[in-house]
Amino acid sequence: MSSEIQERPGEASSSASASAAEEVGLPEVSLMGRYEIGRLLGRGAFAKVYYARSVSTGQGVAIKAVSKQKVVKGGFVAQVKREIAIMRRLRHPNIVRLFEVLATRTKIYFVMEFAKGGELFAKVAKGRFSEDLCRRYFQQLISAVGYCHSRGVFHRDLKPENLLLDENWGLRVSDFGLSAVDDQVRADGLLHTLCGTPAYVAPEILAKRGYDGAKVDVWSCGIILFVLNAGYLPFNDPNLMVMYRKIYKGEFRCPKWTSPDLRRFLLRLLDTNPETRITVDEIVSDPWFRKGYEEIKLADEDDFDAKDFSEDGDGDSGENKCLNAFDIISFSSGFDLSGLIRDSGEPVRSERFVSAEAPERVLERVEEVAAGEEGVSAARTKGDAVRVEGPSGELVAAVRARRLTAELLVVEVQWRDEPGRGIWTEKLRPQLEGLIYRPDEPVSGDP
């Protein structure tokens, strides 16, 4: 997805450069008053990517607007969840930075670093690179890939279209939508999901057996290096099955201008046997790779925690922490109050609203309003929820407030049809109107 993000030089007049404002029929589009949305850069199955500018800093960013409805209906919840969770933790000069994630009723917004130079693919499509330039980009790629692997992240879709260039022509790895993490590894120690782009996919994936995520990334890096040096793919054929057979057998030939050292190095990268294929540590020690190599020193960061990627929960045991990706996408996991409102056969209804107040203030206000109503009481639960009880002490509603951004939070209310409907809709909600955040932008202005 992220390969669609970036502006390609010389394409400002194309149809993909039409402004978001023109597309939605408004003179201008502002996202939550924080970003001015500009021209459309690209679109995919369930996302559109825009150039935007921060209102406060003037910094140019790329904003990917993802349709919640399409994500859920298309079964991409886990994929988008992982992409957000992974990107928010990766801090490396050769990886596209995710600044923040925002959400409205219908959209999720990735606010990301804008790579002004466009895709590496567009540059190599104009002609093959010199061996020194191939080495320089490959060094940056391996630095990023090795960093990901050390944190248990495997990209699984590395290709020139997912490698972007900044204003100084430095490389940025993007599009972590197909990435896997350590906790997806099965008992045999391998990954099993079939994914990737055909021309870059490793032979062990084609064999439909388990595979090592790090080793398939190394194979894809080998394909990328071959393309940079040759200007064309090592395995290619109009017939997909013929191409797959070539990949499986490792049938490729280096162009005549390839130096002996680079030829030897490519053969180690494109070794069809994952057990003997070169590893990232061995790549970094290889004489061809090390020429002019300067290792990047990174500051110590928080440990990567597998719970951040759990598909069954939000991995958040603290109070009032920011919503994780699944919450933002579906507004369900993090707001599931079923532990408070247990099944009694009555339908459970829910309502959500955004507030700019502090979570503590919202919950205090709910308690204050409930205390002022006859036959209604409220009590704080462990964590960040309030139980609303009826005249007999029965639980009729539950309210929870969770962070959406640094400035905004989402308040989720669940109640039973009877008597919760009357207590919430007629007694409590009218007195909480002042807590609701109402941005100036109309819903129809969502990019």
From TrEMBL:
InterPro entries: Kinase-like_dom_sf, NAF/FISL_domain, NAF_dom, Prot_kinase_dom, Protein_kinase_ATP_BS, Ser/Thr_kinase_AS
Gene3D superfamilies according to UniProt: Kinase associated domain 1, KA1, Transferase(Phosphotransferase) domain 1
One GO-annotated biological process of the protein: signal transduction
Listed cofactors: Mn(2+)
Domain NAF, residue spans: 318-342
Keywords carried by this UniProt record: ATP-binding, Kinase, Manganese, Nucleotide-binding, Serine/threonine-protein kinase, Transferase
Binding site for ATP: K64
Superkingdom of origin organism: Eukaryota
Nucleotide-binding keyword on record: yes
One GO MF term: ATP binding
Reaction catalysis annotation: L-seryl-[protein] + ATP = O-phospho-L-seryl-[protein] + ADP + H(+); L-threonyl-[protein] + ATP = O-phospho-L-threonyl-[protein] + ADP + H(+)
Family, as annotated: Belongs to the protein kinase superfamily. CAMK Ser/Thr protein kinase family. SNF1 subfamily.
Protein name: non-specific serine/threonine protein kinase
